[in-house]
Sequence to fold (49 residues):
Amino acid sequence: MKSGLLRFAFFEGNKLVITINGFQKKTQKTPKSEIDKAKKIRIEYESEK
Fold:
């Protein structure tokens, strides 16, 4: 594995913690594309409940 920290996007849903995305963070700032991806996946999850 290359250097960098792993980051996971998640949210609390009732009694569950839903992990929706994971990526290797290589810089100080989280890429906007990863934030947008996590938001999109959460919206999709919420709409399918």
